[in-house]
Automatic annotation (TrEMBL):
Annotated GO MF terms: secondary active sulfate transmembrane transporter activity
NCBIfam families on file: sulP (TIGR00815)
PANTHER family in the cross-refs: SULFATE TRANSPORTER
UniProt source species: Astyanax mexicanus
Taxonomic classification: Eukaryota, Metazoa, Chordata, Craniata, Vertebrata
Keyword Membrane: yes
InterPro entries: S04_transporter_CS, SLC26A/SulP_dom, SLC26A/SulP_fam, STAS_dom, STAS_dom_sf
Descriptive protein name: Solute carrier family 26 member 6
């Protein structure tokens, strides 16, 4: 039993390089395959809607437990948490990340155009919420550069400084009501964050976690690089100590940069000195951290050290009073009570909230999947969307702004040994202690130091500009997506730039499916493989068969292009050939009607005239209205005449036609007869018709079958089904058979009515099956048809020669007749 199965299914593999296999089976078309495999109908494989709805509403203890654990992943890993194994690594990792939260939270709040303390709030509440609902064990939730810039663009658009100006009565100067402005900006940021969180929760509940896949890696990297450009321009005013005009809308980055450049002559030198020193110290310290990171148990908290040292110097030297250096200002101690967000601004920030939701989710899920793949666990994309949404929605009630995973903090949390989200809780505790007890100590911190922290932390995003060279060598289309994303985001701001870049990325997909690679396949000798003949030199064309393949699926956007490419590759101009064929068929019907009328006239004439008038050696045949040439053969003379008009020919034996007998033309030998009429005019016309039709196509007489390899296609629509049906019918009119190989959408073809007049025997599982079928059924006729065509060309030229001889005989007869008449006249 096992031996027979082995012989039927496969042979033996011999070695790695010289191995081979041998399969013996019958040629399988779709109808035979369904018969052997017993394919079920698609309606049988899918349960009824009522049953599925009832099953989804059915509740049991196991299903309830599974759903609760799915919504609260902490219930899965917390009961299994080992303090001895995970406690100390999570504590060390949490302290390291918490120390990073402090400077980044205060610095990134400047990017969001909010007071620094709200950056600390944002680093505390969302991390606690994600602890319960998040499925990733290594990402650090909190402030992030890109989202901070996006929030800042929203609050500056809805709460610009121009709306909070007052005139100082003492010196008649215009001042900004900073307290009222900051309060309203916090309300706008919180409302935007809550709305973005609600959008994320809704998308997660409807299983829309795949939305992040529409943000390709080149798009995300181009977007973050352009966001870094926005961040740098936003920090220039703190680095140089200038006050440029705030702009919003398209080209605001360009206008701001131009304004900063114009204000460079009025740079505040003490602020520039502090910024330069801070940037230099941070860069050198971070480089030392990277060089000795394998020897250090935890990274040195360089940012926190710089902030502490800057605060101490500013406090003891009174930089704000003596040198007019801008500082953070009052930081309230303690936590703020929750407040209901201002829903009146929802309509104005809905687009920005959606952009924040998508960008934040894309960054978080990409980092989460990276760490999950490295450490061997699974991240649920839909649950991550819900967890991130709840972190934003709950944090918005506590005056936080939008959060997502931070790349730098997540890397620190993973490299310092963090195992679970208990590290996130430890970092939140560090932030909480700072907010409750240490917050007022940072009131004298110069904003230039925070700007330096932001500037140095953007180094990783600046390195992404090397993607241009990499993408130039690997993929020009991805490079175009990167550049369009960067340019559109820089010129049209972060919200409109994101929409434009996503639209352009989707258009590239459509264009690539519209312009796929069309190829004609050839056979690789000794195998069952069929490869592109243009890119492989050792493949050979199968005689009489064209194998056509498209690298993309067939649908409404490229169905017409698919048909045009098939015509071009096969060399058959179907439209011209069918038009010419129909025209020739109409002419043939007209000739047949004319021949029928002539036959009726000839039949009537034959009834009236029963004899043949013989004129000496040249004889005028009344029945055929033509000339019959005779010549002597031994004791008999041969007279050739048509038995019936335009039909077979007979001849008369004997000298006297009155006493001669009829004989068949097959009895004569070559050279015994010459005719003056044409007995095969219609047949010749049909031959010439085929010759003329063949001249329109390159391989009309060589190709008898075309195989469409649609194995790359994964779906098909009604337009494509109609196109395939037209291909079958149009090529069938010129006697070229069409077959399909590698079709994976048989159910869709059935639903589209493709098999109403096309048999499933035209579908084959592989290209090799289709080729073998064509060779077995029509391969032998290729050479014979080609030879028949050559013979018909010979008959055509022979007929033309006979016509010339007949014309010459008629001319001789006329000359002889005129001579006799002239002789009789003289006599």
């Amino acid at each position: 039993m096992k031996d027979s199965e082995a012989k039927t299914c496969a042979g033996m593999v011999r070695g790695r390089k010289g191995g081979g296999y041998r399969v013996e089976r019958e040629i399988l078309d779709e109808e035979r395959l369904e018969e052997l495999s017993q394919r079920l109908d698609i309606s049988q494989t899918r349960a009824p809607l009522a049953y599925r709805l009832k099953n989804s509403l059915r509740c049991s203890v196991s299903s309830l437990k599974r759903r609760v654990v799915g919504c609260l992943p902490v219930l899965y890993w917390l009961p299994r948490y080992s303090i001895w194994d995970y406690g100390m690594p999570d504590l060390v990792s949490g302290i390291s990340v918490g120390i990073m939260h402090l400077p980044q939270g205060m610095a990134y709040s400047l990017l969001a155009s909010l007071p620094p303390v709200f950056g600390l709030y944002t680093s505390f509440y969302p991390a606690l919420v994600y602890f319960f609902f998040g499925s990733s064990r290594h990402i650090s939730i909190g402030t992030f550069t890109v989202l901070s810039i996006m929030v800042g663009s929203v609050v500056e658009r809805l709460a610009p400084d121009a709306n909070f100006l007052i005139v100082n009565g003492t010196n008649a100067t215009v001042e900004v009501k900073v307290t009222e402005r900051d309060l309203y900006r916090v309300q706008v940021a919180a409302a935007t964050t809550v709305l973005a969180g609600l959008i994320q929760v809704i998308l997660g509940l409807v299983q829309f976690g795949f939305v992040g896949t529409y943000l390709s890696e080149p798009l995300v990297r181009g977007y973050t690089s352009s966001a870094a450009a926005h961040a740098v321009v936003a920090q220039l005013k703190y680095i140089f100590g200038v006050s440029p005009t705030r702009f919003s809308g398209p080209l605001s980055l360009v206008y701001t940069l131009v304004d900063v450049c114009m204000l460079l002559p009025s740079t505040h030198l003490p602020t520039l000195l502090i910024s330069s020193v801070s940037i230099t110290v941070l860069i050198v310290a971070k480089e030392l951290n990277n060089r000795f990171r394998k020897k250090l148990p935890v990274p040195i908290p360089v940012e926190l050290i710089v902030i502490v040292v800057g605060t101490l110097i500013s406090y003891y030297t009174h930089l704000n009073k003596n040198y007019e250096i801008s500082v953070v200002g009052e930081i309230p101690s303690g936590l703020q009570p929750p407040t209901v967000p201002q829903t009146s601004v929802f309509s104005e920030v809905v687009v920005d909230a959606f952009a924040l939701a998508i960008v934040g989710y894309a960054i978080s899920i990409s980092l989460g999947k990276t760490f999950a793949l490295k450490h061997g666990y699974k991240v649920d994309s839909n649950q991550e969307l819900v967890a991130l949404g709840l972190s934003n929605a709950v944090g918005g009630f506590f005056q936080c702004y939008s959060v997502c995973a931070s790349m730098s903090r997540s890397l620190v949390q993973e490299t310092t040994g963090g195992k679970t989200q208990m590290a996130g809780v430890a970092s939140a505790v560090i932030v909480l202690v700072t907010v409750l007890k240490l917050g007022p100590l940072f009131q004298d911190l110069p904003k230039a130091v925070l700007a330096a922290v932001v500037f140095v932390n953007l180094k990783g995003m600046f390195k992404q500009y090397s993607d241009i060279l990499t993408l130039w060598r690997t993929s020009k289309i991805d490079l175009l997506v990167w550049l369009v994303t960067w340019v559109s985001t820089v010129l049209f701001n972060l919200d409109m730039g994101l929409g434009a870049s996503i639209g352009f990325a989707l258009l590239t997909v459509i264009f690539r499916t519209q312009r796929p690679r069309y190829s004609v396949l050839g056979h690789l000798p000794g195998t069952e493989l069929y490869l592109d003949m243009e890119t492989h030199t050792q493949v050979r064309e199968v005689p009489g068969i064209t194998i056509f393949r498209s690298s993309a699926t067939i649908y409404f956007a490229n169905a017409e292009l698919y048909l045009e490419a098939l015509k071009q590759k096969s060399g058959l101009d179907i439209t011209k050939m069918i038009t010419y064929k129909r025209r020739q068929e109409a002419k043939q019907r007209k000739r047949e009607r004319r021949a029928a009328r002539r036959a009726r006239r000839e039949a009537k004439r034959q009834e009236k005239e029963k004899h043949i008038i013989l004129l000496n050696n040249y004889n005028y045949c009344i029945s055929c209205q033509g000339l019959c040439i005779w010549k002597e053969r031994e004791n008999s003379t041969v007279f050739v005449m048509p038995e019936t008009p335009h039909n077979s020919w007979v001849y008369l034996k004997g000298i006297d036609p009155e006493t001669s007998t009829l004989g068949s033309m097959s009895d004569l030998q070559d050279g015994d007869i010459t005719t003056l009429g044409s007995s095969s005019e219609d047949t010749l016309s049909r031959d010439l018709e085929r010759v003329s039709l063949g001249s329109l196509g390159k391989w009309t007489w060589d190709i008898h079958s075309i195989i469409l390899d649609i194995s790359p296609a994964n779906f098909i629509d009604t337009v494509a089904i109609k196109t395939l049906r037209n291909i079958f019918h149009d090529f069938g009119e010129i006697d070229v058979d069409i077959y399909i190989a590698g079709c994976q959408m048989v159910e869709q073809l059935e639903q589209g009515g493709f098999f109403t007049d096309i048999s499933k025997e035209r579908l084959f599982t592989t290209v090799h099956d289709a080729v073998l079928y064509c060779l077995n059924h029509r391969g032998a006729g290729t050479s014979s048809r080609y030879e028949t065509t050559v013979v018909r060309f010979k008959d055509y030229y022979k007929h033309e020669t006979l016509k010339c001889l007949n014309a010459l005989a008629a001319l001789l007869y006329l000359i002889h007749s005129y001579q006799r008449i002239w002789h009789m006249t003289l006599c």
